[in-house]
Amino acid sequence: MFKIITNEEVGPDIFKLALKYDQLPQKPEPGQFFNIKVSQELSDDPLLRRPFSIFDFKSEEKRVEFIYKVVGKGTKILSKLKNGTELDVLGPLGSPFSLNNMNKEINLIGGGMGIAPLFYLARKLEKQNAALKVYLGAADKSELKFFENKFSQLKSEIYLASMSEELTIQGTALDLWLKKLEKKPDFIYSCGPEKMLSAVEKEALRNNIIGEISIEKRMGCGIGVCLSCSCETKTEDKKNKRACVEGPVFELGEVVLDA
């Protein structure tokens, strides 16, 4: 059973959802997600669950946290739910980020709500003594304030970009990363809009930088049955992979992205 303990607005139409659970089939890892049924009181509208990447996980408190933005009917319903509401939740699901970067130079590049899954990852990397540089971009400063406060609690260098005003720079997360990139990192992780990921991937591969991306796809079932989140790979056989099972985390250059 999952029960809402926090569902509060932390930015413009951006909410922090914290759930208390009784038990989990396995410990969630950074990059994985949960599928949440947002329809309530015997309703099947909306029918499909909504996937939410893990923002943070606290095993000692039996607590898992998500950050979401109200963009449609499902998230609008979710934003109205009160503390104590029980939710029908599946997870953790998907393939996580790799965590084998002890004592390495790591860059995290997040755009918009793609910033959310990078925080739990950053906490894990910090415990591995990784040297973290965090590049965050969004439409405006108000969308970044909550994330800036959270990442500032970690031992990392934080740089911010906004499309509407100058922070570290005025522009995208990619513009920010390229502007501040002085030394090639050992590894990068990135999450955000697919066009941003495509551009990050192109620049990284051009500079022989290795890393992983987490892609944002519509996941109808979350368990690989409906195939709605299939994406074409760059392997010779071009066999499709499902973002909800083989992903949502992929190596740079592994899948075809919308440019």
From TrEMBL:
Keywords: 2Fe-2S, Electron transport, FAD, Flavoprotein, Iron, Iron-sulfur, Metal-binding, Transport. It holds the Pfam family FAD_binding_6. InterPro entries: Cbr1-like_FAD-bd_dom, Cyt_c3_hydrogenase_gsu, Dihydroorotate_DH_ele_sf, Dihydroorotate_DH_Fe-S-bd, FAD-bd_FR_type, FNR_nucleotide-bd, PyrK_electron_transfer, Riboflavin_synthase-like_b-brl. Coiled coil: none annotated. Binds 1 FAD per subunit. Belongs to the PyrK family. Gene3D superfamilies: Dihydroorotate dehydrogenase, electron transfer subunit, Nucleotide-binding domain of ferredoxin-NADP reductase (FNR) module, Translation factors. The keyword S-adenosyl-L-methionine does not apply. Its cofactor is FAD; [2Fe-2S] cluster. [2Fe-2S] cluster binds at C221, C226, C229, C244. Residues 1-99 form the FAD-binding FR-type domain. The keyword Electron transport applies. FAD binds at R50, P51, F52, S53, G74, T75. This is Dihydroorotate oxidase B electron transfer subunit. GO terms for molecular function: 2 iron, 2 sulfur cluster binding; flavin adenine dinucleotide binding; metal ion binding; oxidoreductase activity. GO terms for biological process: pyrimidine nucleotide biosynthetic process.
